[in-house]
Write a structure and sequence with these properties.
- By secondary structure, the chain is an alpha/beta fold.
- Helices cover 51% and strands 8% of the residues.
- The protein has a 5-stranded parallel β-sheet with strand order 2-3-4-1-5, sandwiched between helices.
- The longest helix is centred in the last third of the chain and has 23 residues.
- It binds zinc ion.
- Zinc ion binds next to helix 3.
């Protein structure tokens, strides 16, 4: 997959690969959906690519071909020397449902340890990628620390986290930490247009609302819910509609649009000097997080409007 943005992180990885100085333990930190997992997978390809591309002098990229059998199998998450751990992988091993996996458990890190202690079969390194490492339990993080203290030869460990504070300092100190930034909205718009077939006008609009996140942009690209005009907004009508439709995708989308309109309005008022809006924005953002975590939209908005005690649309 093509990598967009993230030049500082890529430059570090590219030089580390070229000079053989890459730390065997890496933490990629940054918001959800900005390409951490993509870069980790592409790095894994770069270790074992059978046909590595020679990068040109000014290229900021990783040397893999995308086409050889090794690159292809890593792309399909089906390579003996690459292990991708996430909640879905843990659920499969534990024979549980993915929705019930709220943490990454010590058993899972033991599985990583076991995987890394086997000599690579086809590649120079065995690569373990741990997605959402924010979710490691304390026991799991301690088990991870043990692996990092005495890493097996030829092991490459990559922890992906949204917030560094979710990883114990002892673990951080054993890793090279690479920061991933929100993707520039121009780059996102181009990606939506070129790779996802979105018209340029719509791509620009979606990119603006995506906060630099590929996953958010993907979720929003098919969002055809109408813009919410707060001046003609009828909350009673909205709630009765939401009550009927709250189990449907459209209900959630419309709820998101209402929240976005409220947040934009509050930000406008804040920037024109109304400091009381800061508290309101905090409540609104917290409601949006609940929606992102699939809480019932009607409950989220009712709770929000009770807390704000501000009539909407009046
Ligand atoms: Zn290749």
């Amino acid at each position: 997959m093509k990598i967009l943005g993230q030049k500082p992180a890529l430059t570090y990885l590219m030089r580390g690969l070229a000079h053989g100085t890459l730390s065997p333990s890496l933490i990629f930190v940054g918001p959800a959906g900005v390409g951490k997992k993509t870069v980790a997978v592409e790095l894994a390809k770069s270790f074992s690519c059978l046909n590595p591309v020679r990068l040109k002098k000014n290229d900021v990229d990783l040397p893999r071909c995308h086409r050889c059998s090794s690159c292809e199998r890593i792309g399909r998450n089906n390579h003996t020397d690459v292990l991708l751990i996430d909640r879905a992988a843990q659920a499969a091993v534990l024979r549980e449902k993915e929705e019930t996996q709220t943490a990454l458990k010590i058993e899972t890190i033991r599985q990583v340890d076991k995987f890394l202690r086997i000599k690579p079969l086809e590649s120079p390194r065995r690569v373990a990628i741990i997605d959402e490492a924010d979710l490691l339990t304390i026991e799991a993080a301690n088990a991870m620390l043990k692996v990092l203290e005495e890493p097996p030869a030829n092991a490459q460990i990559i922890l992906l986290v949204e917030r560094l504070r979710n990883i114990p300092p002892t673990v951080q100190s054993r890793c090279a930490v690479l920061h991933f930034k929100p993707v520039a909205s121009g780059d996102l718009a181009l990606w939506l247009h070129e790779e996802q077939g979105v018209s340029m006008d719509h791509a620009l609009e979606v990119a603006q609302r995506s906060g630099g996140s590929f996953s958010k942009a993907l979720a929003l690209k098919d969002d055809d819910a109408p813009e919410v005009d707060l001046s003609s907004f009828d909350m009673d009508e909205f709630f009765s509609w939401l009550g009927e439709a709250s189990w449907r995708k459209e209900g959630r989308k419309r709820a998101e649009r209402v929240l976005t309109a409220l947040i934009e309005e509050a930000e406008r008022q804040l920037s024109s000097g109304d400091l009381e809006q800061a508290g309101r924005i905090k409540l609104l953002l917290s409601a949006r997080r609940c929606l992102d975590h699939h809480v019932n939209p009607r409950l989220v908005l009712e709770d929000l409007f009770v807390k704000m005690r501000v009539p909407v649309g009046s």
